[in-house]
Design goal:
The protein has about 500 residues and is of the alpha/beta class. It has helices at about 145-155, 185-195, 235-240, 240-260, 290-305, 320-325, 330-350, 360-365, 370-375, 410-420, 450-455, 475-490, 495; strands at about 15, 25-30, 35-40, 45, 55-60, 65-70, 75-80, 85-90, 95, 120-125, 130, 135-140, 170, 200-210, 230-235, 265-270, 275-280, 305-310, 385-390, 400-405, 425-430, 440-445, 460. The strands form six sheets. It has a seven-stranded parallel β-sheet with strand order 19-20-18-17-21-22-23, with helices on both faces. A four-stranded antiparallel β-sheet has the order 1-2-5-8, with no helix packed on it. Helix 1 (about 145-155) crosses helix 4 (about 240-260) and helix 5 packs across helix 12.
Length: about 500
C-alpha cells in the first residue's frame, strides 16, 4: 500500500487520506461538513454533503459505470454519476465483477530460514518441538451433552491455589458433537478439538463425553484405555452421572496440574512463534492503520523464520489475486483459490454470497462492500510470500505466511487458528471487539483512536495514532512486535484480564 498522505484534522490539506496516486476517492480523517474545502493530491475540493470519519469522498468526477478506486484497486463501480466532493458509499457504489485472470507464480520460492540472531521470548519448550506461550490444563466437552459438566469441573478450581507456572484450568464447552450425521462435518469438529487439546499452550487435557453422542471420545485415543500422557477421557454415563463425573474429573485434573507445575519458561527464539491474524469489527481505518502495521510486523516475523497465519476466507474475496501472485508456487496458489471456490459453493447452498459479509458496523464505519473490506484485510499478511494454504483447524507446520480457510465470524475463526497451533493471535479491530480464546492470548489492535479511547480496557495497542499523524506504520509495527514477545513471555492481554474465553467450533453441516 502506498500511503501518499496521512493528514491531521483542522487544515484543508489535513482532512483526508489518499492511499494511492491512482485512487479517485480519499478517506475522511474526521467529519467533513458541507462547504468545507479540502486539498487532496494538489487539487481543492468542496465537500458537497457531510462525510463521516472513515468514509470515502470523491476527489474527481466519476462517470456512471466507471471504477471506484481505493488502494489502487477497483472496489466497485459507480451506480450513477458521482461529482467531486460527494460521499461515496452504499448509495452510489455497486459491487464490481471479480474473479478475473490470475497471475500464477512461475518459480518455486524457498521456505524462510530460521534466523540465528532472532530475539527471544520466555516460553514453554514442548516435547514435539513447538513452543507454548501459556501453560493450561484444559477440560473439553466431546459434545454439548457434556458442556455443563466441563464448566463445573473448571469452575471447581476457581480460588484454589495452583502450582507455580500453571495459568489455570479452563473449560472448552460448545454446542456441537451430536445431532449430526457422521462424516466430513463431524471430522471438522474432531480435528478442531484434537488441535486445541494437543496444543503447545496446553500441558494436559481432559475430554469428557456423555457416552452415546456421535462424537465418541474413543476417536481421540489409540486404544480403549482412554488415557495418554497428556490426555484423559471420561464419559458421564460410565462415571455415574454429573456429580460422579465431576469428582472423577477433579482427580484427573489434579494429576495433570502436578505435571504442568513441573514446566518452566525458558528462553526461546522468536521463530517459534505461530501468530494467528484476525480482524473483527473492521472499519475503513483498518486497512489504513492497524492492518498494514500488523503486516509490517508479519514481514519481520517471517524474515526471522516464524509463522503467521492469515485467516477468514470470506475476507480475502476480491483480493485473492494479491495473494496468488505472491504464492510460493502454483500448487499453493491453486489450493488457495480452491478454498475460495469451495466457500462460494458453500454460501450458495444457503442462498447467500460473499458480499453479505460486511456487517452493519462495517458499513457504518465506511466499508461499502466485501472487496473494499478484503483489500484492507489482506494487508495483515504484509508483503511476504504465501508459503502454504491449509484447511480449517489443520496443523500448521510451514514457516512464513500461511493461509487458513476459516469463516470471517470471529469466534469460529479463532477456534480454527488455535486448533492449527497458533500460540498467540493478533486481532485488529475498528469498531471494537472484546473476544478472546480459552488457551491462546489474543492481542487487540485498535484501528482508530476513538475506539481505543472508548474501549480502552479492552484494547492493547492504538494503531489509530497513524491516522492522527502521531506515529508511523513502522513505529506501530515495532510496538506490535515487542508486545507480542512480551505476551508470549507471559504478559496478559486485555482479553485475558477480563477472562474472555470464547470457544465456537465451525458447524459446517446439517443438524439432524
Amino acid at each position: 500500500m502506498n500511503l501518499v498522505a496521512i493528514q491531521r484534522a483542522a487544515r484543508p490539506e489535513d482532512a483526508a487520506i489518499l492511499l494511492n496516486p491512482a485512487d479517485n476517492v480519499a478517506v475522511a480523517r474526521v467529519r467533513l461538513p458541507p462547504g468545507f474545502r479540502l486539498r487532496v493530491a494538489g487539487r481543492e475540493i468542496e465537500v458537497r454533503e457531510e462525510i463521516p470519519p472513515g468514509h470515502k469522498i470523491a476527489i474527481c468526477g466519476i462517470v456512471e459505470g466507471a471504477p471506484v478506486i481505493r488502494y489502487g484497486e477497483t472496489i466497485g463501480r459507480a451506480g450513477r454519476a458521482i461529482e467531486a466532493g460527494e460521499h461515496v458509499h452504499l448509495h452510489n457504489v455497486c459491487l464490481a465483477a471479480t474473479g478475473g485472470e490470475h497471475h500464477f507464480p512461475e518459480i518455486e520460492l524457498p521456505l524462510p530460514q530460521r534466523a540465528h540472531d532472532a530475539p527471544s521470548f520466555l516460553g514453554y519448550a514442548r516435547a514435539d518441538g513447538r513452543a507454548g506461550t501459556r501453560n493450561y490444563v484444559a477440560v473439553a466437552a466431546a459434545s454439548n451433552c457434556a458442556a455443563h459438566v466441563v464448566e463445573l469441573v473448571a469452575r471447581s478450581f476457581e480460588g484454589e491455589s495452583l502450582p507455580p507456572g500453571v495459568d489455570g484450568v479452563v473449560a472448552l464447552p460448545h454446542s456441537e458433537g451430536c445431532g449430526q450425521a457422521a462424516g466430513p462435518h463431524v471430522e471438522v469438529l474432531r480435528r478442531t478439538l484434537a488441535g486445541v487439546l494437543d496444543h503447545p499452550n496446553v500441558s494436559g487435557a481432559l475430554l469428557i463425553g456423555l457416552g452415546c453422542e456421535v462424537n465418541q471420545i474413543g476417536e481421540y485415543f489409540p486404544d480403549e484405555a482412554w488415557r495418554t500422557e497428556r490426555l484423559v477421557g471420561l464419559t458421564i454415563q460410565k462415571s455415574g452421572g454429573t456429580r460422579a463425573t465431576v469428582e472423577a474429573a477433579r482427580r484427573e485434573v489434579r494429576r495433570l496440574l502436578e505435571r504442568a507445575g513441573q514446566e518452566r519458561r525458558t528462553p526461546l527464539p522468536a521463530w517459534k512463534l505461530v501468530v494467528g491474524l484476525n480482524c473483527g469489527g473492521s472499519d475503513s481505518f483498518s486497512g489504513i492503520t492497524a492492518n498494514p502495521a500488523l503486516g509490517l510486523c508479519v514481514d519481520r516475523l517471517t524474515r526471522l523464520g516464524a509463522t503467521a497465519v492469515l485467516a477468514e476466507t470470506t475476507e480475502i474475496f476480491g483480493a485473492e489475486h494479491l495473494l496468488v501472485r505472491r504464492a510460493r508456487n502454483r500448487r499453493v496458489a491453486e489450493k488457495l483459490l480452491g478454498f475460495v471456490e469451495a466457500y462460494r459453493r458453500y454460501l450458495s447452498g444457503f442462498g447467500t454470497t460473499f458480499d453479505d459479509n460486511p456487517s452493519p458496523g462495517n458499513k457504518y464505519g465506511g466499508l461499502s462492500n466485501i472487496v473494499e473490506k478484503s483489500l484492507g484485510a489482506v494487508a495483515k499478511g504484509g508483503n511476504t510470500p504465501l508459503m502454504d494454504a491449509v484447511d480449517y483447524a489443520e496443523r500448521i507446520a510451514t514457516p512464513g505466511l500461511v493461509f487458513m480457510n476459516t469463516p470471517g465470524y470471529d469466534p469460529v475463526s479463532l477456534a480454527g487458528l488455535a486448533a492449527g497451533g497458533c500460540n498467540v493471535i493478533a486481532f485488529t479491530t475498528g469498531r471494537g471487539s472484546a473476544i478472546g480464546f480459552p488457551t491462546v492470548p489474543v492481542v487487540k489492535i485498535a484501528s482508530n483512536s476513538a475506539t481505543f479511547a472508548a474501549m480502552r480496557e479492552n484494547m492493547d495497542i492504538n494503531a489509530g495514532r497513524v491516522a492522527d499523524g502521531e506515529a508511523t506504520l513502522e513505529e506501530v509495527a515495532e510496538e506490535i512486535f515487542r508486545f507480542l514477545l512480551r505476551v508470549a513471555s507471559g504478559e496478559l492481554t486485555a482479553a485475558e484480564r477480563f477472562g474472555h474465553r470464547e470457544f465456537v467450533p465451525w458447524r459446517t453441516g446439517p443438524v439432524m
